[in-house]
Specification:
mainly alpha, 20 helices, 3% strand
């Protein structure tokens, strides 16, 4: 645990008690996370009713631990004291959590949770039957409940902004939306150019089937090459890959497509990136905000860095293609250039976000953010979502879904909440910015390091510049500390321009 | 949840609130159980520090939920009301839990937990170095702490009896000790007779190695035959097999010995027995004492019933030997009689409890109970334990350990607590009594059912007579309800006499 500095010895009690409470809160959250991992990876299906009760009990107990009057008193006492920088960061983060929870009535929390569970069910039915009309009333009710929650947290603030800050604190919505505008203006014509004038890329992996067992071994081999420490992690399978854990135990999952080994490999490397962040957090700060990840956007920057700036480089394929061939000998004639191209193929006719390529992905995200801001703010009727969705798909990507199942009903997110998509694209943008800063900083050439399988310097740089800070800095400040400048689309756009112009011979 | 009967509508609030608290307590306990299962089966070793914190937080939160003044007030209010039988049982069980927790100072709970963790470490070192002197001071301190706890719970009662009631409530220590005396007097000469005059039993499984993967498949096949529902359970491996879960999700584990497939098979069937109990509990009573298992002794009766009264019968081997041969074709010439004999072999020269056979096992248990009662009550100096242990081993089994590692340091139990061994032998005794009652009750011949793989009637009988009652009856009463008489050694002794006299040609 963090030690109390001399300057604050007049309030050791409040600070120590706050830290103790923070550790308890972390333990309850981490226990829920283990239960969630188990539910998605290990639990027999019949276990659901009991597991739902366990998670609900832990969630309400965590809430009670947080909104306790004592916490408010400790925070107030500490805010009038002189604190070290680290102590001030701890107090700031716990104040933020406390303020966002204390004014939300328990009754509203309960109604929201219950309605989310029901909406999740309704969404599955609606998606299965391509019936947006079935989903719409539940969605409207969910919007109302979230507006009510936002208003309880900060009645003077725009509700969308309040919800947005759940997942991306300390990074102004304006900044993100300005960056999203730049991306849209740049990526739409780039994608059109690739479609019109880009050469055809070979697809050396197509036309074969790839058994799960060998794909799993290949994912394990990739994790070995990247340096995933199995003393602090493990790889399993899950329908929707995710990472779960903390600085002592950060586990990853992957899933398999029979016709394409790149799908699992990319998912594995992506989740490995998330795990590096957890494992890079300070162990001695487990339980305090200094030992916790900053935000969903920063987390995604770590997964995207490893997925795109390592796993999709030509250097990585020089290193790793022989291992792929060992696992699937029928690929023996595939060249590095072919594999590299296959890993970077753009296919704008795809309708589904989770299957999208590195460029079109962000238009899927931007479209969702534009739409959910509009309907949360009342500028778009829920009934009009399908029409607007399809129009934007046509405008940005040149394709129009035939069904809402492949359109606005494809993602589960809107059966839980809103303003949650931004982090995905912020992550990619930040990954490129971090990649550029790292390449500037490191003496060795990063591509040479990748080609040699020397990933330690990359991981060390991220630990030093991002992970070890935990929540010490607000997001904007962390980005400046790590890269020397505020969040900018510049590096991401440079990176995609250079890569795809070359790859598609534009 | 249980519905409130007409007769108690004047106190719906207290009863409903008590049930709600009971469900919360259950959820916290079950969450800890999932964390424990994960720790033993899935967790990477580096996860320990964070997991220890999570378990400790859940444990202290569960304690606070239980000893809350409200709980005491609800119980007192309900105890002066007219209640249905089921309500009265719920109140009785929660009163018992509350009373055993409320007077134990939080400080003592903390000191005990910390000391248990340290003693566990010291015990491992002592066992590794065959150095009882290293363990003795920690053991003495642990005894003092447990005496302090016993005295807090009931200052007027013998502390050993208080500790004993942790694991075997409502079954007088006198009853158990009388039964243990009968067993010792009967089993010591029976084992000696087998050694002196028993014929040699063939060992058809010896001399081969058995790979883990095929052994795992064989265990899965055994679970299929027995009717283990994978919607509510799963099989994994663990160094010390155990069952974990509730009526929705009851998981089993096994482990493998390369030279003997019976070891894993027996462990799997034993843990399956534990799982049948959890899965037989009422789902609509999850969270209340009516949906919880009765005691360690009753739990063990279920595992021993399936292990011994099913898995060690000739009928079972008639059914299952062909499946064993499918997995290990080199066994094709093994006969049912040979397999049955191998499953029932007695080897009194074994020093280790967890490797003991069906008869000598109980002398290992009785010896431990005699010794731990003596030192908790101050009749035996800790320093004298090794001597007394070895003398008793010689007296009961005719063997003397050369080292304390193979003697009084072999089990981990005394680094946690005392009076915990009785349940193992009570379980076997009760299993035989239940087996006899079941055979009396069922129209069909139980051996015929086993031979045909018709296990449903056996499971149904156990659900009807044991599982569905949960904690409705105190242990002694449950045994009478299920078998028509109090706990008795009679059936167990008849069963072993008949089986081993026949098997060894005595």
């Amino acid at each position: 645990m963090a030690t109390v500095d001399e300057s604050a010895t007049d309030t050791p009690d409040a600070y120590e008690q706050l830290l103790e409470r923070s550790e308890k809160l972390t333990n309850v959250r981490m226990a829920s996370m283990v239960l969630g991992w188990d539910q998605r990876v290990m639990m027999p299906e019949g276990g659901t009713p009991a597991r739902a009760g366990q998670l609900s009990t832990l969630s309400s107990m965590g809430h009670e631990l947080l909104v306790d009057d004592d916490v408010g008193a400790w925070l107030s006492a500490l805010e009038s004291q002189e604190l070290t920088d680290e102590q001030a960061a701890v107090v700031r983060e716990l104040r933020r959590k406390y303020d966002r929870a204390v004014d939300v009535p328990a009754d509203l929390v309960g109604r929201l949770t219950t309605h989310q569970t029901q909406t999740q069910q309704v969404w599955q039915e609606a998606k299965g039957n391509d019936d947006f009309g079935h989903f719409a009333p539940a969605l409207e009710e969910l919007i109302d409940l979230h507006r009510e929650r936002a208003s309880a947290i900060d009645p003077a603030e725009n509700p969308y902004r309040v919800l947005y800050e759940d997942s991306l604190p300390y990074l102004p919505l304006e900044t993100v939306e300005r960056i999203f505008d730049e991306l849209r203006e740049h990526l739409v014509p780039l994608i059109a150019e690739i479609q019109e004038n880009g050469r055809d890329l070979p697809s050396p992996f197509a036309g074969h089937t790839y058994d799960e067992e060998t794909q799993m071994a290949l994912s394990e081999a990739a994790l070995d090459v990247l340096g995933y420490d199995r003393k602090h992690g493990r790889l399993d399978t899950a329908p929707h890959p995710f990472m779960s854990g903390n600085q002592f135990d950060a586990r990853v999952t992957t899933r398999f497509r029979e016709d394409d080994p790149l799908d699992a490999l990319t998912a594995t490397i992506h989740e490995f990136g998330h795990a590096t962040y957890q494992l890079g957090l300070r162990k001695d700060e487990y339980g305090t905000p200094l030992g916790a990840s900053r935000s969903s956007g920063v987390h995604e920057s770590q997964s995207r860095f490893w997925e795109n700036h390592v796993g999709r480089t030509k250097a990585f394929w020089e290193l790793f293609l022989p291992t792929v061939k060992e696992h699937f000998p029928h690929l023996e004639d595939v060249t590095v250039d072919e594999a590299y191209a296959a890993a970077n193929r753009i296919y704008p006719d795809n309708l589904i976000r989770v299957e999208a390529d590195e460029l079109t992905y962000h238009l899927h995200i931007i479209l969702r953010c534009e739409i959910d801001r509009a309907f949360v703010e009342g500028d778009l009727e829920v009934a009009d979502i399908p029409q607007v969705w399809n129009d934007k798909m046509e405008e940005y990507l040149g394709v129009r879904p035939d069904t809402d199942t492949d359109g606005c009903l494809q993602d589960t997110h809107w059966s839980y909440g809103f303003a949650t998509f931004q982090g995905y694209t912020v992550g990619s943008v930040l990954a490129a910015q971090l990649d550029a800063a790292m390449r500037e900083d490191l003496d060795a050439d990063v591509d040479d390091l990748i080609r040699e399988g020397e990933f330690e310097p990359l991981r060390e740089w991220m630990i030093e510049n991002v992970h070890r800070h935990g929540q010490r800095y607000p997001s904007e400040e962390l980005i400046e500390v790590a890269t020397g400048e505020p969040l900018t689309a510049e590096y991401f756009l440079e990176y995609v321009d250079e890569k795809f112009t070359d790859l598609y011979g534009l």
